[in-house]
């Protein structure tokens, strides 16, 4: 599990060490120089003679860049610092100059020349702002320089390495307004920061490398990202005595004569995810059973529900079925996925074992209907804030679909999953996710009843499996929703085969037998530290 802490938490963890004279900046900048040296070796075979431009702001973030520049100069790189503030970190400046490089202060007239110089480098190190950044992007000379650099579309342009965070993102809230330099790689210190995981800023961070500088991070992390072994540990794996009812039955209320595909996709995904049984309720049972003969049409006992794919709230028959089924959700603690058309049928308050799965537009409509007028663009700019608002207003666990999928649940639980390729933004993909999540909730319904916060972890795990299934279906290319559903058995097998025996950690103390519900500060502490902030996992774990 990749965990992130806010800038205030990181500062609090730094304070006692700094008071004891622990050289945190040296640790950070030495590791940063190592990361840049690796980029230089990848790009040109060696460090010696590689050209590195440091963009240096007024604070300690610039200090990191200057010290890293001094280490790189000592290793033979050609380093120049472009200061975008009149004053930069004194010791860092002295170290760089002692190593034989210069600090050039850029003023308004010098922006064009500075941008050209940076554009010609092998590596640009963005040390303008870190956790001291006020959100809203870069302004003044820094903004003008970064805007010029960003406007260039040069294939052989420099590799941009962000120091701690891409400068100007909302470090704690993931906002990305104004001018920010998109990084190919972010080397972050002590722990990941929420803005490196959260949309929309996460896409500006590139590959994420977490450097252990010895911080002891107390309290709860802000945002978590599940990795494969976490999802494997959450997966409902049948024991030897399992039968179809003990494995869970999911009831799917989906589809209409006009939208039969949604019913086929949602039921198919539930079947292929390996649930005990799928019951279908709706008007296209003939088509569903023709495509998926495993599905049982008609009512009966279920452990969990999927409501809404391909359902119009004006469809009186489907509406009645969903309203009737909500009775079991509210009074028998049956977990439910509420998707698409069913979002408009949501009762005023529901328990956290109800998982809403809107995209940004649907979330905007849900919030507007509940008195918080907001449009899709605003939700996309601040998805975490709006997902939290929806959770507060409804009580439900909320999964917001997107390039990075967000899940928020009770007790401040929040996950940001970036497992999906952009190709997964395709019709029907949401129906597959709903069916898949319904299967997981049915398989672990008793555990969810004991601990409703487990629903958020299961929703995050479903997002991970959904994204991986898309990659399995056609690595690097277009996928159809049907192909994603068909790839589920192979994806789950790979996940369980690779990772099932590995432990996970818990958000709350009340953990269930097989797996717990989210992160605490007892994060895994071993293993390599390189993770992708905005792409598929590559087998590392966050180090501290
Ligand atoms: N403490 C340590 O030993 C360690 C620290 N570490 C490193 O330090 C970084 C944090 O350093 P930091 O606290 O100095 O903040 P930093 O991000 O450099 O910026 C502050 C300056 O920027 C200014 N400013 C802010 N927003 C602005 C805006 N939008 N536009 C323009 N200016 C803006 C702000 O001005 P002010 O708000 O004061 O007016 C202030 O002058 C951290 O990310 C990590 O890299 C690591 O080495 C580990 C050990
Ligand atoms: K930075």
From TrEMBL:
Region (Disordered): 506-544
GO-annotated biological processes: metabolite repair; nicotinamide nucleotide metabolic process
Residues of the YjeF N-terminal domain: 10-221
Low complexity bias spans: 508-533
Keyword Electron transport: no
Keywords: ATP-binding, Isomerase, Kinase, Lyase, Metal-binding, Multifunctional enzyme, NAD, NADP, Nucleotide-binding, Potassium, Transferase
Catalytic activity: (6S)-NADPHX + ADP = AMP + phosphate + NADPH + H(+); (6R)-NADHX = (6S)-NADHX; (6R)-NADPHX = (6S)-NADPHX; (6S)-NADHX + ADP = AMP + phosphate + NADH + H(+)
InterPro entries: Carbohydrate_kinase_pred_CS, CARKD, Nnr, Ribokinase-like, YjeF_N_dom, YjeF_N_dom_sf
Similarity comment text for this entry: Belongs to the NnrD/CARKD family.
Stored PANTHER family: ATP-DEPENDENT (S)-NAD(P)H-HYDRATE DEHYDRATASE, ATP-DEPENDENT (S)-NAD(P)H-HYDRATE DEHYDRATASE FAMILY MEMBER
Domain YjeF C-terminal: 227-495
Gene Ontology molecular-function annotations: ADP-dependent NAD(P)H-hydrate dehydratase activity; ATP binding; kinase activity; metal ion binding; NAD(P)HX epimerase activity
Name this polypeptide is given: Bifunctional NAD(P)H-hydrate repair enzyme
CDD domains documented for this protein: YXKO-related (cd01171)
């Amino acid at each position: 599990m990749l965990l992130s802490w806010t800038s205030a938490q990181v500062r609090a963890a730094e304070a006692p060490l700094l008071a004891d004279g622990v050289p945190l900046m040296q640790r950070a900048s030495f590791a940063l120089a190592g990361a840049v040296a690796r980029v230089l070796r990848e790009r040109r075979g060696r460090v010696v003679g590689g050209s590195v431009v440091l963009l240096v702001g007024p604070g300690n973030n610039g200090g990191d860049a200057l010290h890293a520049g001094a280490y790189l100069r000592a290793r033979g790189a050609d380093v120049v610092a472009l200061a975008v503030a009149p004053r930069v970190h004194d010791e860092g400046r002295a170290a760089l100059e002692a190593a034989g490089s210069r600090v050039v202060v850029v003023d308004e007239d010098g922006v064009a020349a500075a941008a050209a110089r940076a554009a010609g480098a092998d590596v640009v190190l963005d040390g303008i702002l870190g956790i001291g950044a006020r959100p809203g992007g870069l302004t003044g000379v820094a903004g003008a320089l970064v805007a010029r650099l960003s406007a260039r579309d040069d294939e052989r342009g420099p590799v941009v390495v962000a120091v701690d965070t891409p400068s100007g993102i909302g470090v704690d809230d993931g906002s990305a307004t104004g001018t920010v330099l998109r990084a190919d790689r972010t080397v972050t210190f002590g722990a990941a920061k929420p803005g490196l995981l959260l949309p929309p800023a996460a896409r500006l961070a590139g590959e994420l490398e977490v450097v252990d500088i010895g911080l002891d991070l107390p309290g709860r992390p802000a945002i978590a990202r599940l990795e494969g072994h976490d999802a494997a540990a959450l997966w409902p794996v049948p024991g030897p005595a399992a039968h179809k009812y003990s494995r869970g039955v999911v009831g799917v209320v989906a589809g209409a004569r006009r939208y039969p595909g949604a019913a086929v996709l949602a039921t198919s995904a539930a079947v292929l995810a390996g649930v005990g049984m799928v019951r279908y309720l709706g008007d296209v049972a003939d088509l569903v059973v023709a495509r998926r003969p495993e599905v049982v049409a008609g009512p009966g006992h279920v452990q969990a529900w999927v409501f809404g794919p391909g359902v119009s709230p004006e469809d009186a028959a489907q509406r009645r079925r969903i309203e009737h089924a909500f009775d079991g959700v509210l009074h028998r603690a049956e977990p439910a996925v509420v998707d698409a058309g069913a979002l408009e049928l949501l009762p005023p308050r529901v328990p956290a074992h109800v998982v809403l799965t809107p995209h940004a537009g649907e979330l905007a409509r849900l919030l507007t209907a509940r008195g918080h007028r907001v449009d899709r663009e605003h939700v996309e700019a601040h998805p975490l804030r709006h997902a939290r608002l929806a959770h507060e207003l409804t009580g439900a666990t909320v999964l917001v679909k997107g390039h990075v999928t967000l899940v928020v649940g009770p007790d401040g639980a929040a996950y940001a999953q970036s497992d999906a390729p952009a190709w997964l933004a395709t019709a029907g993909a949401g129906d597959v996710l709903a069916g898949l999540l319904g299967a997981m909730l049915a398989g672990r319904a008793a555990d969810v009843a004991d601990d409703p916060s487990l629903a958020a972890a299961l929703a995050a795990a479903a997002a991970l499996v959904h994204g991986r299934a898309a990659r399995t279906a056609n690595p690097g290319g277009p996928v159809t929703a049907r192909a994603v559903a068909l790839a589920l058995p192979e994806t789950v097998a790979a996940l369980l085969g690779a990772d099932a025996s590995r432990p996970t950690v818990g958000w709350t103390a009340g953990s269930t037998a097989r797996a717990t519900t989210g992160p605490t500060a007892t994060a895994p502490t071993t293993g390599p530290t390189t993770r992708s902030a905005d792409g598929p996992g590559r087998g590392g774990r966050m180090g501290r």
